[in-house]
Specification:
Blueprint: H1 3-28, H2 32-42, H3 45-53, H4 59-72, H5 78-88, H6 90-125, H7 128-134, H8 139-146, H9 153-161, H10 167-193, H11 195-223
């Protein structure tokens, strides 16, 4: 069996596994999807946190699955990241959210690359502008894209999947880049939901994040001119 058929077999198997998990959730909690939709659509974050926490020990796996699933299909995972600090505590909530984000993004990246890679390579080869953009597809650029809090994951995933970055390099950039973004999103969400208790810490966090990204912006503007940002990589 060659790599192409093995890849398709793994994707089909993964898809069937996800469907099985979705059906299992429906069987165990028939009102799960309607309740999740109602709470998420209404922006009732306290209600969402209470509902996920009601699953007890299974809440950890459920949270990881939900974050991975919405990332895999290109939907925002912010509501789940926001409440995880409340449900599990700040540090465990950050780690649980980070695992879910990494898994979901990797699934989305591999699915997008499998379905659209050949078509994308043809388009890129015909456009000098796209070829220049593709030359920036390295660990550093993808990692910086992943590290921006509240940035749509689907945009960076699409760029990565249609570029020449390797699976290994994307995984490294994903693992390293998503951690600071998730840290800010979970921490900020936790303190916003409990702002009366943590307003001082929230101000400090916002100031630190703003300072860091000003430094990154300055470095990118003034140092990038002195040397190439990254070299073109093949997958």
């Amino acid at each position: 069996m060659n790599d192409k058929y093995l890849g398709w077999l793994l994707h089909i198997g993964g898809g069937l596994l996800v469907i099985l998990m979705l059906l299992s959730i429906q069987l165990m909690a028939p009102d799960f999807y309607s309740t999740m939709y109602r709470l998420t659509a209404s922006g009732d974050l306290d209600g969402l946190a209470d509902y996920i926490a009601s699953f007890g020990f299974y809440a950890v796996g459920l949270s990881i699955f939900l974050i991975a699933f919405v990332n895999a299909i290109g939907l925002p995972s912010i509501p789940f990241l926001t409440v995880n600090g409340i449900i599990f505590g700040l540090i465990p909530g950050i780690l649980i959210s980070w695992v879910g984000e990494v898994i979901g993004i990797e699934i989305s990246f591999r699915l997008t690359r499998t379905l659209l890679r050949k078509q994308a390579q043809k388009v890129i080869s015909r456009s000098k502008m796209l070829e220049k953009l593709d030359s920036y597809s390295c660990i550093r650029t993808v990692m910086m894209g992943r590290a921006i809090p509240y940035a749509p994951n689907v945009v960076v995933t699409a760029f990565s999947a249609l570029s020449h970055i390797s699976y290994r390099d994307h995984f490294i950039a994903n693992v390293l880049g998503k951690f600071p973004a998730v840290l800010v999103e979970v921490w900020l969400g936790h303190d916003l939901l409990r702002i009366q208790e943590h307003w001082g810490r929230l101000i400090v966090l916002v100031a630190i994040v703003a300072f860091i990204y000003v430094i990154i912006w300055w470095r990118k503007r003034y140092i990038k001119k002195k040397r190439p940002y990254c070299s073109k990589e093949s997958s």
